[in-house]
UniProtKB/TrEMBL annotation, chains A, B:
<keyword id="KW-0805">Transcription regulation</keyword>
<dbReference type="Pfam" id="PF00440">
    <property type="entry name" value="TetR_N"/>
</dbReference>
<keyword id="KW-0678">Repressor</keyword>
<dbReference type="GO" id="GO:0000976">
    <property type="term" value="F:transcription cis-regulatory region binding"/>
</dbReference>
<dbReference type="GO" id="GO:0045892">
    <property type="term" value="P:negative regulation of DNA-templated transcription"/>
</dbReference>
<dbReference type="InterPro" id="IPR036271">
    <property type="entry name" value="Tet_transcr_reg_TetR-rel_C_sf"/>
</dbReference>
<dbReference type="InterPro" id="IPR004111">
    <property type="entry name" value="Repressor_TetR_C"/>
</dbReference>
<dbReference type="Pfam" id="PF02909">
    <property type="entry name" value="TetR_C_1"/>
</dbReference>
<dbReference type="InterPro" id="IPR009057">
    <property type="entry name" value="Homeodomain-like_sf"/>
</dbReference>
<keyword id="KW-0238">DNA-binding</keyword>
<feature type="DNA-binding region" description="H-T-H motif">
    <location>
        <begin position="32"/>
        <end position="51"/>
    </location>
</feature>
<dbReference type="InterPro" id="IPR003012">
    <property type="entry name" value="Tet_transcr_reg_TetR"/>
</dbReference>
<dbReference type="GO" id="GO:0003700">
    <property type="term" value="F:DNA-binding transcription factor activity"/>
</dbReference>
<dbReference type="InterPro" id="IPR050109">
    <property type="entry name" value="HTH-type_TetR-like_transc_reg"/>
</dbReference>
<dbReference type="InterPro" id="IPR001647">
    <property type="entry name" value="HTH_TetR"/>
</dbReference>
<feature type="domain" description="HTH tetR-type">
    <location>
        <begin position="9"/>
        <end position="69"/>
    </location>
</feature>
<protein>
    <submittedName>
        <fullName>TetR family transcriptional regulator</fullName>
    </submittedName>
</protein>
Length: 228, 228
DNA sequence: ACCTGAACACCGTTCAAGT
DNA sequence: ACCTGAACACCGTTCAAGT
């Protein structure tokens, strides 16, 4: 009960904070109970006094990221235009996600909500409700947005992992026979923007394209609902 | 070189086929190299003569599912309406995915394309091109669709895992204070459709809602492009 | 060429024991 | 109450040896 407690006292918060830093540094594969404990200067089993098991640790990690999103989003001011405000919140959430490349995978593997995730989600629902959308439409909207509501889309076949060899002309030749449309499209894209070497395309602009497609569609349904 | 070879001769195909059946039966967590080998009546290390490692096995699994999708999709006849045909292909792909609940997770963790995945994707691109969309727009469309092009969306916080306890009134009460909009929405949904007990909502209709939102939006952009 | 068995270097987690 | 160390039951994978 005094301020002179040992500086390194273990706590759930300190564990989560260290786990986030470790995952940022080494990727989610580098986050093991043993490794996390070592990082904290403690034995692996000590963690189990503050966290039920690894699943619970990951739940905590996801919620820690959601807390960061809440902080970032709090700085935004509301304009009263739900679509504009929603777009801003989601793109801000994305900035947080980009700081934690492992977070999308963890979010997708979660099965329960932490308090910060709940509050972030609640705010999105409130924003759409304030725009006059029905509960039903908002519900559809949340499902349609899916992970985009949290600022990410899990890229299918992310070329980042194997882009180096995949771009080889031999493989493109081999593909050309079986996938003429795909090859033609990729050639066209490469021609248009030869500078996009971090993957085949600009993730950010693709994210915004998909997001705007959905937001525009939702706005249309909302208007249709209002006139009914 | 004779037909009287031992019936149980190991081969890449037989390994993949058994792996799919095993994953269907026990989930992806039940698919281990050791377990798969046992299922084949063979030692674990024998698998490594036909498959480089587990990553390669999973690559093969994803492509096996894509092959099934190709088969299912081949039965569809083209109407010439790209949007209608694309919708049909994707919903057919979804039927295959629903037979393999582990497949979405495997698809999302892949980093390289198998031949069947490539051909399935190529057909989608061809369909949109036939509708007059530019390479650029088709490229955006593929990104916007993302995993939906393969008939699935990875549900965030799938309540299937913990729905039993999560629906408890105490927890809803506790949530009500911090998440009024969310609670109100969920209450409204439950009121509208008290029968939807497999999760909070009907995945199929939510999938189609999101898909149609995107397809409608793409159609609009395609028309805009045509007039430009 | 194909398959085997033992072994290695990891995991998450249980348990009895320490302070 | 909190932390430890050894141990258990798993993984994927390497390696030398069998046929």
């Amino acid at each position: 009960m005094t301020d002179t407690t040992v500086r390194a006292a273990l706590s759930r918060d300190r564990i989560l904070q260290t786990a986030v830093a470790l995952a940022d540094r080494e990727g989610i594969g580098g986050l093991t109970m043993r490794g996390l404990a070592a990082e904290l200067g403690v034995e692996a089993m000590s963690l189990y006094h503050h966290v039920a098991n690894k699943e619970a640790l990951l739940d905590g990690l996801a919620d820690a990221v959601a807390a960061e999103m809440q902080d970032a989003v709090a700085a935004l001011e509301a304009t009263g235009d739900w679509k504009h405000d929603l777009r801003g919140r989601i793109l801000t959430a994305r900035e947080v996600m980009l700081r934690h490349p492992w977070a999308p995978g963890v979010f997708e593997s979660r099965t329960s909500f932490g308090p910060h995730i709940v509050r972030y989600t609640d705010a999105l629902v409130g924003l759409m409700r304030s725009g006059g959308m029905s509960h039903d439409l908002v519900h559809h909207a949340m499902h349609a947005l899916g992970s985009r509501a949290f600022g990410f889309t899990q890229e299918l076949f992310d070329p980042a992992g194997s882009a180096d060899e995949d771009a080889s002309p031999e493989l493109l030749m081999q593909m050309a026979a079986e996938a003429p449309n795909l090859v033609e499209m990729l050639a066209h894209i490469a021609h248009d923007d030869p500078g996009s070497t971090l993957g085949w395309c600009d993730d950010q602009s693709e994210f915004e394209f998909g997001l705007d497609l959905l937001l525009d569609g939702l706005e249309r349904r909302a208007e249709r609902e209002r006139l009914a």
